[in-house]
Fold this sequence. Notes:
Layout: E1 8-13, E2 19-23, E3 28-32, E4 37-44, E5 51-56, E6 62-66, E7 71-75, E8 80-85, E9 92-97, E10 103-107, E11 112-116, E12 121-126, E13 133-138, E14 143-148, E15 153-157, E16 163-166, E17 174-181, E18 184-189, E19 194-198, E20 204-208, E21 215-220, E22 226-230, E23 235-237
Amino acid sequence: MRGHTGCVLSLALLPDGELASASEDCDIRIWNISNFSHITNEILIGHNHSVRSLAVLSDGNLASGSGDCTIRIWNTKTLQTNQILTGHSGWVDILVILSNGTLASGSKDTTIRIWDTKTGQTLRTLTGHTDCVKSLVVLTDDSIASCSVDRSIRIWNFKNGENIKKFPEYDSPVVSLAVLSDRILAAGCMDKTILILNTITGQALKKFLGHTAPVSFLTVLLDGRLVSCSFDSTIKIW
């Protein structure tokens, strides 16, 4: 599927089965995945820097995080911006929807913000990381995990902002997380490895080797297997 003029940085599946894509070209495009075509004129335009992350809200609207330090909430039917969320002072690398319907964002400014997407207000700001926050995952109904270029992983209670746990610093920046079970977390690292971690102790239970360049993204298949993507141009299933 062609149309973007810059690197595609994020994808999100919309409630009606269409696909949204975000790019370095500052645009978000909507695609019909039944015939792999771009839907004519369905381009969300508003960011003035790369669009780095997407998340679909519980009401079906789309959230986008950008290098312009803002988050926009879009109505994908009207193609209009409903809200512009401001507060970060660095690009917004990751968005995730929380169990209570709020939105969490991780930024190059080292913070995590929890947002009310209806009002556009920051509910709380989670501080502790000392470098760019690269990934966020939901662990339980009230906790999330974050990882950072500062080589750390932290567990937070997003409802009260408490930093519940900071894992020992690892050998390399951690850039992606995936939840394998309620106590097991996978972490993709810039040193080409994937760590399997106990979320209670932070202990590394296993280390997966095989990539020849930094790991860029992790996800979990429906059957529980872990998938990793890397700058070595490969995808591996573990």
